[in-house]
Amino acid sequence: MKVAIIMGSPSDKPVMGKAADALRELEVDFSAWVLSAHRAPEALRAAVSRFEEEGVEAVIAGAGLAAHLPGVIASQTLIPVIGVPIVSGALGGLDALLSMVQMPKPVPVAVVGVDNGANAAYLACRILAVKYPALRERLSRFHCQMQADGASKEEAAL
Ligand code: RP5
Fold this sequence. Notes:
Strand order of the largest sheet: 2-1-3-4-5
Largest sheet: 5 strands, parallel
CATH topology: Rossmann fold
Radius of gyration: 16 Å
Order of helices and strands: EHEHEHEHEHH
Bound molecules: 5-O-phosphono-beta-D-ribofuranose
Number of domains: 1
Shape: globular
Helix content: 40-55%
CATH class: Alpha Beta
Oligomer: single chain
């Protein structure tokens, strides 16, 4: 079980680091690369072609501006791809969000909120948990803990 984290630029690392943190928290193995769909298309294609033999079962792809990275990856593999739109430049992430979410059928990309690298990791874990009972158990404990924490905050709100 492995997740591939791909980002378009080193400048995307702060957001994608949140995805890595969440995967570590849930004990899910991952590899991370900087591979731009526009600046390194051949290297990206080569990396995607190795995913299956490397045991990659979900991909998290983050990029800003005209963010074609997750869509291009989804065009080259059947492994589910989750896009993270990243704030960069004048349009504040709306450009990246629309670039990712408006994929043509039958090449879907799941998209999380702008700059929400952590949620991409949690979604990847939910996808993998269908197949891996131990991960499902860790996710379940994590979810229960979150609800308990939320309840105790509410009691202290006044
Ligand atoms: C995108 O362009 C990258 O994903 C990044 O979010 C944005 C800006 O890249 P840099 O100019 O900072 O390398 O391809």
